[in-house]
Inverse folding.
């Protein structure tokens, strides 16, 4: 697709922080704070469900270097949520800083503050706790309406009506449908009824959760945290501590990865409470084990798909039911689940006559889930795409053909996606492009490589959103400097994704300057304009549009200043090629002239702020195809080639978009083949370290190829949509498909480990 | 407590440390903030430093054991790293950056041992350096582009 | 987390032995496994200064010092030429280069770890351990000895003519193995070492002479079945007992075919 030639957009410029990061400069939370902070450590529950009947900290407090120890008796009784979400907060207020009732293995029992790590560790061992151990809710299938309650407390609050009730172990519940689902299903030639299961994958960002807090020179709480959501953290701390928001400042330095984990305030409240009580600087750094056991992983889900089709491969009706396991607390529970249906079903808008999507989100005594890249869509897409692949195989149709027959196309209204218009949709072109580049026709057949090994291929399609429509707010402030360069202030959080650079490219495009002439600052609640934060794939689409708007406003202000310099009316001035020109004359002034004038006898401020929200959330689209070699005897799978084509509108920075895709695909490969979370009978996860929770290495991912099909999203900045999340959605269905081709077995639970492949037979298919 | 003396980034350092002090903590105490801890189980490679020119995991090395040895962190090898890290930046593969110092240190070790590695040799040598952001392919492209450009110059 | 009160770099094996005889003393190898323990170590004894980081070779044998690293044996051309790269194959997937630069052969063998690739491959060779007090004894004997306070000084591999092959199955490329398998034939005797069962590696020889009358598809298959029947397996996070028993058959067959050049 053609688009105009840009100066800075659609260019692969280096990330602004690249050389700092590659040369190991001290830019992360632990590197930038003073080293006199108190060490904060948490005593965690060994039980999945228990009441702290007695807790004795006397001996622990006597350890030299221990400053104080806090238990449930010391914290406010205000329930709050750690979820970093916009008003009206959808997640229930079900947490205390420390609760007497501990609800999962790893729940916090006490906070230790000490002068050094050794003292803190020693104190942890000396705290004596007696627990009344309660029977735990460990199976999410039986949680709803169980007699055992995860949250029996009477001050549980749902600030937003999402169908939940703590007295039913229900975080949220909803039913939605359109058309005569049962009638059409009964009329279909073929009905597939399949159930899928995905696990509570950990984001496993390389930098674990960590927060530093101190009192600033005005006696305000100053928080430096590795977070995607500075403004939400300010609100959460205000709720948790019961202090006004004016008394809190939250900023983030560089972040060592997030992927959604840091869209929940996992670590912030503990040092904040210590600083609030002691007045002293405090820092918490989660160990990898704590990040694994008490982080905010993906929601475990079971998705039941009922698909009705005609024998010529027309998908007529879809009926999804998702059961989501929110774990011990409700963060992001009510919101993630929706995507499992709303971001899978619409892909088949082309043929669909009716759909139904119901869900329940339940509490259990397992670690609380949160936000993870893909946010429910990943789980739903694995389920639906695998069912569609099975339909194709059952009908003897090529899986690409069945997609062409049924897929969403540009210009269609999507009833299963809030009746939004697919205003920019190149899904069909993605499939054409991927099929050709990948050489699908040659790779799809099963080929015997000898010695028990076969090669074959599988595929999947995906969509996501570009923001939370009618909710997210992105903002930007653009300031002119006297040398004619610009400063961009944002509240969005670059967690390695490169959004600082991408947003600077947009300023450069608007202001006709080089990207190097734009400095970026963010994010800091004292200085940045309000932004919901970086999640929901929204930064490029929402904050990007705010940047564009702020630049337009700044240009108008610059024209006013220029009019003064040019002795003309503001209507006569226009901005072109970095100059402010007077219409119908050769007269002009430079941006630098305006910058200088702005600081000299000038009443017009040379900066502008703008906010943006969107009534729609235009989906990006993607097709992924994988070629594997499978060893039928050992069950080992090697990825040979993973080819994907993405429609993210116009990629603002193609190099960074490509890396997003590659990184997401490898995470998806990890979830599909090797990453797992399993629990002991007592409810303790076994995969508590990188020894047991296996991330893919560079030997596990084969060759990756990523290409783009451009579309132009009219509501996005420069035609852009999102890229960050969709990229994780195709590996699971594509790999499960290829494994079926190689073995004749449909695996409906991931990860699909070598053992499961080697030890299952086609006759086990249900 | 143990008296130690070692050469850190070319400078002789003497200090007294606990018998169970780990090299990573010693290095961070000596302002080598590039050295990062990503796990506690010797699995991630983030803490890679060179001991007598050999890449090791500083999270699993007793400081006492480094006594009398030569240690390099990225702070001491900025110049050597600068030869190639720009190529990784051009791919956007730096991403969050938290794994970069360990990855860059091990790449230095690789290129010293094998100045002209194949893609498979690069993957094998760097297999102990985990990265959760980039998907690895961009790191490989960056190193490959660097090697190709170096060949052209030669 | 492990704690250590004193650290001593022993200047002689005798000094190391004496220090090690005290309660709560530990010889440290690569420190990678000890570091993960919750041990309270009184004295950590480091053998780094004793010249045990060398691989020595003569006409008859390789003598591998206990402080030789896994990376050293991975790169040693002569050792890998003798073992048809089995040594390299056994260690190349262990975590990463940095890890293998630290992990020692002595630590791997002394630990008699269930997951050990190293123990598996050496068991299939004509190999011995040299203990400071206990002298030289076959590795196959050492593997079943109770842990004591002796010191492992060297691993000795006799240059007996042999064929050998190694393979393992892993859920992720650098993970602990689900199963390890080393096969060899020395003086016409076929041996199979199976590790990560998940218990420590075990050696089975062809004492029924299944392969004696000819190595072919049928006899290999029968022998693999025999090995699987004689090696107990159990389940853990990485695999079930049934899967491991299945893998014993698959890997034994493949290794013998590879060793004998049967495709």
């Amino acid at each position: 697709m053609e688009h105009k030639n840009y100066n800075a957009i659609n260019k692969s410029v280096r990330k602004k922080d690249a050389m700092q990061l590659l040369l190991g400069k001290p830019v992360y939370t632990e590197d930038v704070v003073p080293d006199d902070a108190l060490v904060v450590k948490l005593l965690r529950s060994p039980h999945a469900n228990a009441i702290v009947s007695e807790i004795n900290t006397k001996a622990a407090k006597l350890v030299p270097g221990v400053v104080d120890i806090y238990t449930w008796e010391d914290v406010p009784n205000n329930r709050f949520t750690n979820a970093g979400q916009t008003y009206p907060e959808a997640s229930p207020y079900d947490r205390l800083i420390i609760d007497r009732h501990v609800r999962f293995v790893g729940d916090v029992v006490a906070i230790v503050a000490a002068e050094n790590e050794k003292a803190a560790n020693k104190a942890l061992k000396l705290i004596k706790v007696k627990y009344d151990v309660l029977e735990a809710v460990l199976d999410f299938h039986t949680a709803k309406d169980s007699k055992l309650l995860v949250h029996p407390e009477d001050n549980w609050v749902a600030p937003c009506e999402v169908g939940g009730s703590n007295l039913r172990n229900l975080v949220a519940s909803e039913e939605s449908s359109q058309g005569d689902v049962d009638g059409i299903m009964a009329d279909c030639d073929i009905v597939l009824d399949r159930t899928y299961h995905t696990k509570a994958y950990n984001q496993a960002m390389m930098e674990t959760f960590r927060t530093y807090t101190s009192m600033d020179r005005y006696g305000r709480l100053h928080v430096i945290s590795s977070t995607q959501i500075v403004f939400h953290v300010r609100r959460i701390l205000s709720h948790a501590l019961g202090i006004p928001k004016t008394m809190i400042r939250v900023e983030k330095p560089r972040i060592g990865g997030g992927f959604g984990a840091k869209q929940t305030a996992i670590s912030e409240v503990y040092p904040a409470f210590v600083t609030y009580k002691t007045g002293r600087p405090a820092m918490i750094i989660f160990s990898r084990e704590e990040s694994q056991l008490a982080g905010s992983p993906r929601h475990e889900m079971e998705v039941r798909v009922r698909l009705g089709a005609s024998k010529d491969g027309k998908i007529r009706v879809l009926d999804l039911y998702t059961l989501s396991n929110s774990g011990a607390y409700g963060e992001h529970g009510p919101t993630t689940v929706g995507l499992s249906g709303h971001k899978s079903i619409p892909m088949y808008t082309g043929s669909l006559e009716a759909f139904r999507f119901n869900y329940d989100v339940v509490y259990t005594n397992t670690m609380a889930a949160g936000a993870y890249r893909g946010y429910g869509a990943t789980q739903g897409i694995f389920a639906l795409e695998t069912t569609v692949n099975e339909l194709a195989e059952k009908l003897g149709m090529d899986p690409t053909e069945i997609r062409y027959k049924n897929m969403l196309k540009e210009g269609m209204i999507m009833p299963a996606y809030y009746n939004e218009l697919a205003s920019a949709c190149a899904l069909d072109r993605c499939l054409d492009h991927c099929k050709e580049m990948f050489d699908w026709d040659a790779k799809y057949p099963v080929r015997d490589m000898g010695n028990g090994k076969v090669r074959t291929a599988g595929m999947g399609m995906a969509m996501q959103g570009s923001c939370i429509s009618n909710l997210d707010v992105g903002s930007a402030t653009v300031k002119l400097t006297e040398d004619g360069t610009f400063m961009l202030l944002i509240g969005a959080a670059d967690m390695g994704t490169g959004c600082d650079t991408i947003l600077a490219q947009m300023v450069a495009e608007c202001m006709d300057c080089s990207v190097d002439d734009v400095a970026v600052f963010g994010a800091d609640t004292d200085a940045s304009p309000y932004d919901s934060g970086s999640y929901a794939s929204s930064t490029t689409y929402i904050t990007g549009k705010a940047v564009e708007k702020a630049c337009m406003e700044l240009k108008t202000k610059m024209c006013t200043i220029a009019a003064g310099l040019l002795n003309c009316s503001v209507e006569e001035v226009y901005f072109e090629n970095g100059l402010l020109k007077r219409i119908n004359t050769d007269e002009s002034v430079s941006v630098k002239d305006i910058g200088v004038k702005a600081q000299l006898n000038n009443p017009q401020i040379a900066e502008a702020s703008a906010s943006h929200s969107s009534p729609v959330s235009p989906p990006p689209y993607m097709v992924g195809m994988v070629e594997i070699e499978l060893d039928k005897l050992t069950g080992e799978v090697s990825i040979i080639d993973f080819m994907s084509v993405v429609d993210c509108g116009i990629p603002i920075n193609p190099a960074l978009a490509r890396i997003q895709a590659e990184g997401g695909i490898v995470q998806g490969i990890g979830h599909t083949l090797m990453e797992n979370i399993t629990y002991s009978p007592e409810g303790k996860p076994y995969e508590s370290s990188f020894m047991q929770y296996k991330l893919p290495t560079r030997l596990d991912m084969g060759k990756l190829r990523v290409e783009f099909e451009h579309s132009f999203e009219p509501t996005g900045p420069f035609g852009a949509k999102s890229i960050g999340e969709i990229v994780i959605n195709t590996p699971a269905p594509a790999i499960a498909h290829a494994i079926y081709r190689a073995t004749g077995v449909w695996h409906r639970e991931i990860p699909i480990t070598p053992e499961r492949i080697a030890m299952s037979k086609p006759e086990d298919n249900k | 407590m143990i008296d130690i003396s070692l050469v850190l980034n070319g400078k002789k350092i003497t200090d007294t440390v606990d018998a169970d002090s780990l090299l990573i903590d010693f290095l961070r105490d000596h302002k080598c903030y590039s050295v990062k801890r990503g796990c506690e189980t010797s699995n991630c490679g983030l803490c890679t430093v060179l001991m007598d020119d050999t890449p090791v995991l500083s999270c699993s090395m007793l400081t006492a054991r480094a006594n009398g040895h030569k240690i390099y962190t990225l702070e001491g090898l900025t110049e050597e790293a600068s030869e190639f890290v720009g190529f990784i930046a051009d791919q956007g593969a730096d991403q969050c950056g938290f794994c970069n110092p360990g990855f860059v240190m091990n790449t230095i070790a690789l290129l010293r041992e094998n100045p002209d590695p194949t893609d498979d040799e690069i993957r094998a040598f760097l297999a102990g350096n985990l990265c959760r952001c980039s998907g690895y392919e961009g790191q490989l492209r960056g190193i490959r582009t660097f090697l190709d450009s170096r060949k052209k110059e030669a | 987390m492990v704690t250590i009160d004193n650290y001593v770099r022993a200047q002689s094996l005798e000094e190391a032995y004496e220090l090690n005889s005290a309660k709560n003393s530990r010889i440290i190898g690569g420190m990678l496994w000890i570091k993960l323990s919750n041990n309270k170590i009184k004295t950590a004894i480091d053998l780094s200064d004793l010249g045990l980081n060398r691989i020595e070779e003569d006409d008859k044998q390789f003598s591998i010092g206990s402080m030789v690293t896994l990376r050293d044996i991975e790169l040693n051309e002569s050792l890998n030429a003798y073992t048809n790269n089995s040594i390299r194959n056994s260690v190349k997937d262990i975590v990463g280069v940095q890890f293998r630069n630290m992990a020692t052969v002595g630590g791997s063998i002394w630990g008699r770890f269930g997951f050990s690739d190293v123990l598996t491959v050496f068991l299939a060779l004509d190999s011995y351990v040299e203990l400071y007090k206990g002298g030289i004894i076959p590795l196959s004997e050492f593997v079943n000895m109770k842990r004591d306070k002796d010191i492992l000084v060297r691993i000795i591999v006799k240059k007996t003519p042999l064929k050998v092959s190694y393979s393992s199955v892993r859920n992720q490329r650098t993970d602990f193995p689900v199963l390890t398998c080393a096969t060899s034939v020395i003086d016409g005797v076929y041996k199979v070492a199976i590790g990560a069962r998940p218990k420590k590696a075990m050696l089975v020889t062809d004492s029924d002479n299944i392969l004696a009358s000819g190595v072919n598809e049928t006899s290999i298959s029968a022998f693999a079945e025999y090995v699987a029947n004689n090696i107990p397996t159990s389940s853990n996070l990485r695999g079930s007992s049934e899967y491991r028993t299945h893998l014993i058959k698959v890997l034994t067959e493949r290794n013998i075919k590879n060793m004998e050049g049967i495709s």
